[in-house]
Structure formats: structure tokens, C-alpha cells
Fold this protein.
Amino acid sequence: MILALSGSSIDGPVYTDVVDLARRSPAWLDDSVTAWSAYGLAVFAVLMAVGWWRARRVGAEAAVTALAVPIVVVVAYLVNALVKLLVHEVRPCRTLHAVTLEACPARTDWSFPSNHAAIAAAAAVALFFVSRRLGAIAAVAAAAMGVSRVWVGAHYPHDVLVGLLVGGLVAFALMRWLARRDGALARRITATRLRPLLVS
């Protein structure tokens, strides 16, 4: 079943206010937010790599948890993408004919929920299981990613909020499931040629 969601009736005025504010803002701010919106996900990849590198020094179980983070993020993305396929919400830049900082995606590139937000939230939640410090950094980065997606005109606010929720919930559920099995997984992996991935 496909639902055709009309996002403008939910928070269209808020979206319009944010996009108008972006158009009136200094060029340096818009350029910074646009760059973050486009390339900020790379920061989460760096945080995952740092988490794994540090976890290897703690022990095999910690390293298994860290190695699971990118897998969990991919699963969260796939779940979010499935929701997109079920809910055909046209991008706000097309529905509201807004002038945005980012080029408006194709009409069939659905808006709800935000993939960027889901990926960022999944990474942040999963990283909390590896390191509270890295998780906190990722949480701030995820919030910034969510705001940036509205600022550049790619999403309604509710797209971002639901994307954060989907990504966060999927990551939390999977990481909790893994926490009960990381010992067994660590023992299996250390008995193979993949041992260097878990211990330094």
C-alpha cells in the first residue's frame, strides 16, 4: 500500500520560514550549511573508524561492537528507504515552489523520511554503545545534519524528525540485540583470519 503524504499541510509554513531565512542569511553561513548538508555524513564515517580503532585496544568484544556500527547504519538506511517507498511525499521545494539553496531533487525522489537524518541518527545511537564521548559528538552532528536538510530546502521539518526517529530506533534495537551476543561473536571471529580486526 502506497500513501501519498501531503507534507505542506503538516509544517509547510515552518519550512517556508526556514527557507526564507536561509535566503536572507550571509553567504558564508549558507555555504557552510550547504557543505555540511552535502558532505557531513563523512564525519560519521570518521567517527566510526575512530571508535573501531580505540575499541581494538579495549578488547575483542568492544571491537565487535564497533565493527557492527556501520552495518547497523546500513540496515537503518534500508528501513528508512523502505518507508520512503511506501510514503510518496513530494519534495517541499516542488510542492511549495520554493527557491532553495540546494537544487530541487527529481519529483520521484521522495522526501519522507529524510535518509540523511536516519543515517546520522543511527550512527549517533550506535556509537553510544562504543563510546559515550563519540556518541555525544555524533549526536550533535546528527542534530546539525537534520537542521541543515531543512535549511537547504531538501526536507520538511517532519521529514527530518521522523528520519531521526527511524534511524535511532533501528540502531538502538540492533545494538541492544548485539550486546547480548558480542562475546560469542568475538570468540568466533578471533578464531579466524579476521582476528586482526578485533585485537591490536
